[in-house]
């Protein structure tokens, strides 16, 4: 499948698969099309420590670029406990456990449709 261009739905699901392969926890894929114009999907997941957060982010970036996805913006750092990857229609939030609890994006976007939730 490497090198195959992915549509937005496939791209979002690929992020979930990559995060799962890197042992991210509490992976949530939200369809936000009906509640926001900023993107189609949010993927929210957690890493246990800064090293894992960085590994998840770097692998998502590297693997999606192989499928023609463009990373428009990267924000945050593993040390801060939060990295955001903006692929346009798919936005990825990778949190440390404390930061995930503090920001509680799931509650902010509670009106969004849950597509996938992996604990």
UniProtKB/TrEMBL annotation:
GO terms for molecular function: ribosomal large subunit binding. It holds the Pfam family RsfS. Keywords: Cytoplasm, Repressor, Translation regulation. One of its GO terms (biological process) is negative regulation of ribosome biogenesis. InterPro entries: Iojap/RsfS/C7orf30, NT_sf. SUPFAM superfamilies: Nucleotidyltransferase (SSF81301). This is Ribosomal silencing factor RsfS. The gene is rsfS.
